[in-house]
Design goal:
Layout (H helix, E strand, L loop, with lengths): L2 H14 L1 H39 L12 E2 L2 E2 L10 H8 L10 E10 L2 E10 L2 H5 L12 H5 L9 H8 L9 E3 L2 E3 L1
Antiparallel strand pairs: 1-2, 3-4, 3-5, 5-6
């Protein structure tokens, strides 16, 4: 069979079955569009997750104290309070370490005027802002001199600031955290 004859026969068959041909083409177009859309959604989701992980820092290493045991019963990982600020300073002296940001976390009642909220409270050093990529929107982060002088200063998260102060700027205002006055 010659190519011209085969091509003429195919065009004749397509013309004779116009509805079937149209539905077939439509099915192929919809199938290809669906595959392209799903691939785009998958790549977009992958890019979002990758940027989220990268924003935390792909080269972070977390060091937590080991678990404690009492009477043969093991505590949760990180329940031992064996790490100190001196340990963090010693780790920072390692040649491959760019920065160290020690932190301690607990839950506390935060009060400003007649407003209060229970929230997570994080004690940290100035390096925390850089290491964890948490820039301050308004005001400034804590400084090394405030840490060394044990100044009672606080950096409020946006949710806590809105709960306690509403639309008023909390910069320079005082809050009580577990009964202690912080600026």
């Amino acid at each position: 069979m010659k190519t011209g004859y085969t091509l003429r026969m195919a065009v004749t068959a397509l013309g004779a079955n116009k509805m079937r041909s149209t539905l077939t083409v439509l099915g192929v177009v919809i199938g290809v569009a669906a595959v392209i859309a799903l691939m785009s959604i998958g790549r977009g989701t992958q890019a979002t997750i990758t940027s989220s992980i990268e924003s935390m820092g792909t080269n972070l290493l977390f060091v937590n104290p080991g678990a404690t045991t009492q009477n043969g019963i093991g505590g949760a990982a990180g329940s031992a309070s064996t790490l100190t600020l001196e340990d963090a300073q010693a780790i920072s002296q390692a040649p491959s370490v760019a920065a160290v940001a020690p932190q301690i976390t607990s839950s506390a009642q935060v009060v400003a005027g007649r407003q209060n909220t229970r929230t997570q409270v994080l004690g940290a050093t100035p390096e925390y802002e850089l290491v964890r990529n948490f820039p301050v929107d308004q005001g400034s982060f804590i400084t090394a001199s405030q840490v060394s002088s044990h100044s009672l200063v606080a950096v409020l998260g946006s949710g806590v600031a809105e709960t306690l102060f509403g639309l008023i700027s909390p910069i320079g205002e005082s809050v009580k955290i577990n009964g202690l006055q912080y600026k």
